[in-house]
Structure prediction request, 550 residues.
Amino acid sequence: MSCLSELRPVNTDYAVSLLEQLKLFYEQKLLTDVVLVVEDAEIPCHKMVLATCSSYFRAMFTSGLSESKQSHIHLQNMDPATLRIIITYAYTGNLAITDSTVEPLYETACFLQVEDVLLRCREYLVKKINVDNCVRMLSIGDLFCCAELKQSAKRMVEHKFAAVYRQEAFLQLSHELLVDVLSSDNLNVEREETVREAAMLWLENDMESRSQYLSSVLSHIRIDALSEVTQRAWFQGLPSNDKSVVVQGLYKSMPKFFKPRLGMTKEEMLIFVEVASESLGEGAGAGIPLATVCYSPQADKVYKLCNLPGELQKVGALVTPDNDVFIAGGQVPLKASISIKRGKLQTPFRSVDSFYWLDAQQNTWVPKTPMLCARVRPWLVHCEGLIYAVGGDCVGSELNRHTVERYDWKKDEWSMADTWVEMATRRTSRCFASAAAFGDLIFYVGGLHVAGNSSLRMPAGLSEGSPVTVEIYDMNRNEWRVAASVPAKRYSDPCVQAVVLLGALCVFVREKHANERARYTIYQYNAERDCWHPRQPVSERVLWDLVPLE
Prediction:
């Protein structure tokens, strides 16, 4: 009987009631047996509660030393407000974390060894890493020996190196962290001169105390990657007494051939989201995650990225000017509600508000703050540092199709955008079209006409073998005009994508000529002649079997 009794689950109602009573005792200062003294504040508590959540207090109160019998415990170098947040967590299990409290909370929880608070602060900090705080997060992760925070922050520093090396936080990095960054192969820099400038800025910020690190820091500059002009002027301005030593040491230690940094090898690619796994040789069937692939027009090769998270599909996708990749919204299947309709399995879906950033170095999707609304395939655009989610198909919430929300990466938060400026109306009513901005023009390519009853049809006078129609919106003139059509044959509109590639406006299209299997072609627009010409065909072995773009 005793064994059966031990296996019975905890009475959750009783546990909640007990916690509420402890909280009431704390608030009314009933039966407290210890007082925490921080600066001028005194906080009466219960030793049992403190020892339950904190290894620091557990060791203090059970050690048998004099501190275990003291009624007042003085804590130094601690903020009273931060301590109260942790104590409130101990009595309620609720933890209030904000941008302004997370760092002192992490520091205090680290000292008091409150593991769950540490974990939640760590998750919050990792999620909030951005270009403005990544260097500081790197230092914090190093200070508190938090490998996850340190590595996540370092990847962001490497990715945004050209934007962060002038920050004050970068100039205050420790010598060890600086060397760790400068020696990385993953720096996203196109020229080694950027790395050299970063090293010199750090040294010159406090030359008197940092001159001892001169040789150590400069030895991580890849000299052979510098231009000849830079190499000739390389040591100008260095302290004369260190000059000869540095010259000899560097040239002796540096190999003749250097390994290029990550940013020196980058090339423009087309990214395809939601590629069927069967196209990549992984089998078919429901429940198989959709993949994301990159196509390099220069190399005519495809590189596979990680699958979409879970069973997510019909997402909105965006690549920012800084080469950050985001996906938003989408839908996931409700497996418990699978039904049979007309002899086929029917899986209903639930729309979601998810939002992810692609950590390219780790090849993984990192969850960020979800959108305010659930949206299926919203249109994502980047403008002046903010990301906008426009519309989207959302069953059960018609309002979401007409709303726009914007994302601030620095704050990791979404807000509604409700200011609209009336623009000129397009000449046609089409959906499933692709759009791309090039200079002060917006190109609207392909698409199906929408009839009065919202049914879809081909544009008037066009057949499936007709060219892909193009409209252009001139932002300065606030007017639309019809441009030359893309001369693709037997195209399928969902397979038409307008993109800016290598400084030119292009259209990636799937087409099929008579008695031939479908193939992909990239067409480029000539603005002076208002015409399209094939930029390059895409070899059949590379992309012919990808699922149609939707």
Remarks:
- The two ends are 62 Å apart (CA to CA).
- Residues 12-27 form the longest helix (16 residues).
